[in-house]
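Dear colleagues,

As part of the handover before I leave the project, I'm documenting each prediction I ran so the next person doesn't have to rerun anything. This entry is a single chain, and its sequence is reproduced below.
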Amino acid sequence: LADTFAQLARAGLEDFYRGDLARRMASALGSAGSPLRLSDFLTHRAQWRTPLKLAHSMGDLYNTPPPTQGLLSLLILGQLDRLGLDGLHGQSAEFIHRVVEATRQAFVIRDRHLTDPARMRTDAQSLLSDECLDLLADGIDLQRAGGWVSGAPGDTVWMGVVDSEGRAVSFIQSIYHEFGSGVMAGDTGVLWQNRGISFSLATGALNALEPCRKPFHTLNPPIAQLTDGRTVVYGSMGGDGQPQFQAAVLLRHLLFGDDVTAAVAAPRWLLGRTWGSGSDTLKLESRFAPEVFDALRQRGHVVESLLEFDESAGHAGLIVRHPDGRIEGAADPRSDGSVEYA
C-alpha cells in the first residue's frame, strides 16, 4: 500500500483510474472473478452534487443527496422540529421515544424511495417540504412504539475539519464491512469495498443490481449553519445508527445546552442494526436511568441494554465554530478518535 501511495505521488491521482495502477487493479480484480474491467475505471467520473437542505427553526441543516441516506438524517430532525422538544431532557424516555419514532418514519421513506438518483421517481429535496414533514410528524404516536423494518450493518469512519477562516468540511469514508469485500487488488494493497451489498437480485426491486447503477449506502456527513452565526460540523459511523446518533448529538448541544464534550459522551441508543449488532431491537447504553428503560418498554419498545460506552452506539464527533472565530470540538470516548487544534 505504501508503494501504491508513492506511485500516486509520482504519477498523479489520475493514475488510479486511467494509468498503470488502474490497469494493475483491473487485471487483479478480473483474476479474482470480479466483473469490474479497465473500462469501468476509465469511464469513472466524480460528480459535484447539490446537498439536501432542511430549513430548521435553528438554521439551515445540510446533508448529502441520494444514493446516500443523508435524507434520513434531515427527515428525523425535521419531524422533531415539528413535534416540539421544549421542556424535555436529553436523556429522557420522552426524548428518546420521539427520535426513535421519527427514525421509523424516515426509514419507511428510505425503503420506498432511495436508490441511484438517476433512477429515483421522487425528488429527494421535495421529501423535505413542509407538507411532507408535517404529514410524517402527524403520524407519530407520542405514547406508543410503531413497527420496524430491518436495516443493515456497516463499518465507517467520520471526520470533520474547520479552519480559522470558517471553512468547514464534514467527511465520511467506509469500505462497509470490516474488511470490505475481502478482495485485495493484486499486490497494490488496495482493499475493495462491498457497498454493492445493498443491491437486490430481485428483478424490478428499488435497488436492483444493474450495470452502471449506484448502490444505496448509509454514508452521510452533515453540516449546519445556524441563524445565530454558528457553523456545526458533526457526524458518526454506524450504518443505520448514523442519523440517530447525529440527532442525539446535535440536539443535546443546540437544544438542551450540553457542552460539546457532554453532547458527544452522553449515553445514546440505537434502533435496529449496525456494526457489531445484528438484532433490530431498541438498544440503550446502560448509563441511562432504570426508569428510562421501564418507560420505553411501557410504550411498547423492545429494549435491550448495551455496555456503558458501547461501540454500537457510534463513534461521533462534533465541531462548532462561533461567530467570533472561537472553535471547540469533541471526539467520542467510545472510539480512539481525538480532537486536534493547529
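The chain has two domains: 1-46, 52-155+216-331. The chain has a mean pLDDT of 93.

All the best with the project,
I.
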